[in-house]
Here is the input.
Amino acid sequence: MQLTTWLRQMPGRPFRGAGHRTALVAAGLPLHLAVVPLWLWLLGAMAATVRAPAAAAVTALPVLLTLVVTPLLTTGQRRRYRALVGKDLPRPSANAKSVVRRLTGRAWWRQVCYHAVAGPLLAVLDLVVLAVWAAAVVASSVYVWIWALPSQWRVTDLGYTAQAAYITAGGLAVLFLGPRLTDALVRLETRAAEVLLGPSRTEKLARRVADLAESRAGVLDAADAERRRIERDLHDGAQQRLVALAVNLGLARATLGDLPEGARKVIDEAHREAKEAIAELNDLVRGLHPAVLEDRGLDAALSGVAARLPIPVRVAVDLPRRPSPTVEAVAYFVVSEALTNVVKHAQATRADVTVERIGETLLVIVADDGTGGAELAAAGGGTGLAGLAKRVASVDGTFSCRSPAGGPTVITVELPCAP
Here is the structure.
């Protein structure tokens, strides 16, 4: 059963796509050989220079012509792969804008190496593969040539003999070997083109890092937008319902004076729970993304945070223009969480918050006169500094905490701002 299936599938599989790949090999032959005359000219000019040193300037001409035709040959190679096998060769980074920098860049000289060194070697393999195809086609159709060609045109008169049958069988065997040779050569050529005509490993890693940074920025923006949506839904939905419930419970407690003492206690307890739930929900909403931050910026939002704390906090914000919403949210979160830690753990009597923009960097400093001893990697210490560091690192910022025993504690954060 397996043999029958293999025999049924065999006629179509060896030659599937062989035409396109063979065309790719044939089209690459003139492109690979284009630099060979220039290098033969260079060798002849160098030999002439040995005999006549006055002709030394002539040796520069083939080198200059090689540099001129290099981008044209590279374009031809890219079009060859795109047209025949539908493959787009990756392009190296084009950071160098001046001609001198391009000519001294590694990408340029990789292209020269491909056309001047790898190209002629690949051309030899192209000729071998094309010769195999030609020999296979001619040998496998030897009976056709015997029948079609007049006897005076034949190199040898094989006739319909056993020798002709052997040649036909050998030609068919080589014909089935041709696609494998072509596939191997196409893989070799493609690999050489990707390495020498495409970006280097360093450029690929740089592109990968840039793509990851861009995708991470998109995720952060989406998360920030989602936090804003949740804040709006809580503020306009659940929070308003809790306020209405608290108001109704308060009216019931005030107007229903003939209620039993047990019922009045239940209403009082429900009213107190409703007010506490509103307060907790307000804190949650402010922690997600306070509306004042979006409407009025960091100065107003941080001033509101400082006003709610039991210790005096000096807030100094100097921003000639607002940073991006994501960076602004991170700065607010860092200051808010740091001040909360100061109140809970530092035993401080005052704190200072400084936010300023220096070039394209947002500098945030939170200082207190507490007991110090805060540790960034303290597990279960309650400081929350590790979480702050991760939040800052999510936007490629830097986080540092200086907190010697006895104080003071100074948290410094630098956040990159988009230009």
